[in-house]
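Agenda item 2: FE2/S2 (inorganic) cluster complex prediction
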Amino acid sequence: MLREKYADEIDALLARFPQKKSAVLHLMHLAQNEYGYMSDEAMKEVAEILDLDPTHVMSLAGFYSLYYEEPVGKYVLEVCNDLACALRGADKFVEMASRKLDIPVDGTTNDGLFTLKTVMCLGACDRAPMLQCNLKFYENLDETKFDNMIADLRARAAEGDADPSVVERIFSYIK
Amino acid sequence: MSDQNSVMVSLTIDDKDISVPKGTLVVEAAKLLDTEIPVFCYHPKLESIGACRLCMVEIGLPVIDRATGEKVLEADGSVKLNFGKGQVTSCTTVVSEGMVVRTQTDGVKKTRADMLEFLLTSHPLDCPVCDKGGECPLQDLTMTYGHDTSRMDFQDKIRLDKRVPLGELIVLDKERCIQCARCIRFQDEVADDPVIEFHMRGRRLEIVTFSDPGFDSIWGGNTTDICPVGALTTSDFRFGARPWELNPVASICSHCPVGCNITMDTRREAASGGRRVIKRISPRQNEAVNEIWICDKGRFVHHFADAPDRLTHPLVRRDGRLEPVSWDEALDFVAGKLQQHKAAVAGIAGGRLSNEDYFEFQRLFREGLGSGNIDLAERRLAGGDVVAQVGIASGSNLLDLKKGDAVLVVTANLHEESPVWWLRVKQAADRGANVVVINVCETRLDKHATHVIRYAPGQGLKTVSDLLALARVDTGTTGEGDLAAAATALMEAQNLVVFYGAEGLTYPETDTLARMLANLLLLKQGEGDDAKAHAGRVNNGLIPVWSYANEQGAWDLGIHPAYGPAYKALAEPGLSAADIYAGVDDGSLKALFVMGADPVGDGLMNGRGKLSFLVVQELFMSETAALADVVLPAQSWAEREGTFTSGERRVQRYYPAIPPMGEARPDWQILAQIGERAGLGKPLIAASLAFKELAKAVALYKDMTYQTLSRVEQQWPIISSTEFYYGGTAHINSQGLGQQWAAGAESGVPAPYDLPAEPKPTSVDGFRIVRIPALYMPGTLINHTELLAQRVARPTLYLNPTDAVNFADGEPLAVTVGDETFDVEAAVSDSVPAGLGLLRGVPGARLAGFEPATVTRRPVAELVAAA
Amino acid sequence: MEYVLLRHREIPNLKKLDVYREHGGYEGLKKALSMTQAEVIDLIKASNLRGRGGAGFGTGIKWSFIPKNAPDTYVLINTDESETGTFKDRELIENNPHQVIEGALIAAYAIGSRLVFNYMRGEFMDAAYAFEEALQECRAAGIIGQNILGSDYSVDFYTHYGAGAYICGEETALIESLAGNLGQPWSKPPFPAIEGLYSKPTVVNNTETLANVPMIMVNGPDWFKAMGTPQSPGPKIVCISGHVEKPGNYEVTMGMTYRELLAMAGGMRGGKKFKALLPSGGSGPIVVEDALDAPLTYEGLTPFDSVMGSASLIFMDEDTDMVWATLKVIHFFRHESCGKCTPCREGTFWLERVVERVYYGRGTEADIKLLESITSGMKGKCLCALGEFATSPIVSSIKHFLPEYKAKVAAGMNGKVTRAAAAAVR
Ligand SMILES: Cc1cc2nc3c(=O)[nH]c(=O)nc-3n(C[C@H](O)[C@H](O)[C@H](O)COP(=O)(O)O)c2cc1C
Ligand code: SF4
Ligand code: FES
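Presented output:
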């Protein structure tokens, strides 16, 4: 339960806003980080903390593209193939990634480690091809770098990946 | 155009001049000129969002010379206009002085055609099977303003789910939705149940619900009215009929004292053997009563009228069995028996009969049989006589309450007992009115209240008495704390409306309560000669939250042992219901006439006791009817004409919508026919004449006839007209806005009521339980509405965690009060006061006030057996 | 050149408070605190600083719209930065956060606000550590909080993260999103300056806009106006991407030509020929060769029916398939349309379908007309600018590259271009 696990962070977060509903996106980031995706349980928990009808949380989960409403892999690779990146080879990069991971776009590897997605501009067009993986940017990529990145992530996963996630780090500033 | 007419603004719309109150939207101003500006997302009862872009017009504003502040003129002397960069949405633009609006230019026409074309690119165009077909704004506006061809490639259409139940009451067709957000905004802004929302974005935007149960709101049906397409439908009307086959009939909802104006749409139905049946109920505009909203109970609980187990023939008991007989035979028999027992007869009536029925009922007893033993089968709330003096003044409209005004709600749960009053009080709060809630436990109004006063069990009257003391500024009493703040808010209010109910109070306590609240309304505010009481002024006064739709009418017409019609105190009071039931038991009463009530089924009367004659006039073979010597089949309110009087003392007409079931007759007629046999003269042949007689005899109703009750006037906002569509399928009111009779205080403020010196708090040691109301309380009518089965309140005992040490949420419990035991389920919640159990959804529970009770865990026999 | 905004490129560790202070940091705020609110607003007005978020509205004027002595007002920094080809604000929050914070605090003081939020797109969380750290440093140093810098002015300052929605960069959608509602814009009026966050007066400014403010406070309006043109004074970060040798952010003074900017970015990649430029990410109409000599100013591209916007320059070379590029851009807008208003929701969807059809060789000549006609139904009719933006790649690419559309149609009819041939687009 988020409420228990992040009691201090949540209190501090709610204290920031004149109206606590404002904390909903933060809490959804936290819930997704905890549950892997916006499961029914995750949405209900966020709603309960903020006294919202869970329908509202569901509504936001659908509106914002960073929330996943279906289970995803441990690492979500989101490649920008918007125009600026595409002019610098992003589409080819996606094809390569798809081939290497042996999954189609929006697919998840059998071991549950990787999900591949394409996304709109991430604000790193000068360093294309690039992707974000669990909110971390990997830029100026090519096939070799991609291979290394995947190998590195696999190794980390095997070790249990103890590093705090981007969301956890941001929440550490909230307290 | 309620109360803004102070400052008027002049503008020109398509070369026609008009003056409208400041703050009016352009789209509304145009309606007054009969100029149609088509809309989809705009709804006069909702905040404008300017989303559909259909209402765009060209608007020019006079150019003002900065230096002189004068209007700049063109060479030809006309005022120079600035038409800005382009078209604007008339639903979000407020009128301003000198504004020039053009609604018929080529540019505006192109916008309308373009927006319609856009909407149709994603619309399924399944009009032939769409419930809205025939009353669909998208269809109609396309006919008027659309392109005649479509350039959308059919391949490009997206296919979406066409049957998505949002809960069991409302069904969504995703393809038909045009994303106007009316439904979402209604649920959020008006109903405060934001249980449906948009999901996804862009072209994928769709309505979802994630509440439990789905679409968890008692207002959901209204969204199907205001949905401008066939996207939202009620599951009972879906694919039920084409709108043009429907015959709309004006009626009044019979479920609570609000008196919502409704329309029953009827149709001949093959499945019912060609009988005309009610296909749906929707709201009918009455801005002073329900605006254009109704609750789901009013909308869905009508199926009882067509139920196959309705009584169809008079029945007389022969050899122990009830057998059909002719009307004449039955009536002769009843008249004979009643006259035979003349001195020892009594009459019991239900609370939802018509005024005409009540009038004839009391006439039969008082004049025909010489008996004053008449009463309602069950009274939970007293104070009709007080209401007659200080009831909300005629001409009042809760819609007018705003900042500076106040509403007090005492021991009533409006959301459950009279939902539309809840809605209107909540909206008054939204407009800035102070709302004070006094109750023993949490209610849905608390969230919108400015002052919430909780009293301890048994302290209800004491609390109100303290409030009254604090409110008496003339005594110089000042106080601190919540109650004092509430008292100040009430007394400083420009207008004050007080609702009172019977939650946690015994019947005699409610009588004291009514008097106390009357005294509150009679307190003068202000200094010296300017001092005036709230009572008697428009938008001020008392509103009783009666348990039944026409309890007010029953009071007015003297269905009371102590009062005759028009509150004439009787020198010799008759027996009250309690005395009558006792008389049945001990044999002092010989004959009983029960009309539209089931005292046996409701646990009020222990069988037929020592009665020698029992006659029951009913719709169904109730438990009481099953014991009767004669059963007379009555027409339901849907089958006949009549009037109800609301808690705001508004007398309103309803009309026959469906043919009578079998040989059933209207109650008043049956009574008059018995009366004829008892020497009361020829019975009248029409309800209108019965009302005429009534109005002659009852001074309160003297200015009313069926004609005056059916008067209408232009209402604001204009939701619809014969040519134009604006608001939804809520019907315009062409059959009567009703009439309020004037309370006594309107013609002279009465003296304050005598009160018991100091209300005695009821002793409240130990664990107590109190009954709390539920809208969907199980009962005869609701049980005939399968659709609501899942929503019907389950027998539940709400408990504070400190009282629930031995059992958990959801566990089966047995609650014992005196010698009665109820099976319930536990619901544990912090919001319940410690030491108190809130009993909800137990139909048989005859509890008043706070009863000592024992609660035990109930063995679940079924489960044990299954294991 | 001397940097005004991208000073971190010259000053290592500028994101640290002490380094920032060594280089004159928070002097602008100090100066502001010594002035009246009206004086601060007048000074910014005098500088003619215009919004860098795209619309170019006068910053001082915007601040002056806030009702005087309103009890609750808010300053919101717009770091939603989601326009295709735009990546300037991210560089600022990541490397020069204090300059943004200082600018925002000056704005807050000027309008009497006690609460500032920086709304950053959720994808910037990783980049935002520097900003979060800078805020912590400020709190510790008494720059944020009670009686900042010893004055009697108190202000709180927090970050906020979006979650992936371009529309939340539009100021009213941003406000809705920050309030916890669906991030859909509202139809103005009411303007945020009167009814913004929680219905209170609110100023929304772009990150880069605010980064200019401290330097203007310190150096004065004349210093600022000495850069650029009278209508478009000051420095501007230009985001250059696409087929150039050295994509990246470039800080320039306004008035420089697009050709010069291309040269700064090392010219077209691999010596290819220039074909087309999207001068403001996806939302500014495409321009061609003749516009390259126009100056980078708010009005510079007006003769070419285009805009400077956020100055996100996407250069495309001779090999670029313009129908493909158009499809990419309209795909973006269809994907990002919030769905609130009819013409944008339905129009972007329909446009994408038709461009797609043309691109995959299933289109007809009539489809090209249809595209123009759909845009005419959208222009001037949408609730916010997104729908308007969505029409510009269509209209401008047809205007400049009609033969390419026609060729697609013709080729398609010969069956030469198949769906599979360009499957990577989506
Ligand atoms: C669809 C859309 C997206 C926008 N995105 C951004 C954005 O990411 N960042 C930004 O600063 N302004 C964006 N804007 C402009 C803002 O609405 C607003 O004008 C700006 O933040 C004002 O700041 P400024 O006056 O400092 O430029 C966007 C506008 C629209 C219509
Ligand atoms: S379901 Fe009906 S009312 Fe609701 S958004 Fe769709 S069209 Fe409008
Ligand atoms: S935009 Fe005005 S009615 Fe929809």
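Discussion summary: The CA atoms of residues 96 and 134 of chain C lie 9 Å apart.
Owner for follow-up: CH.
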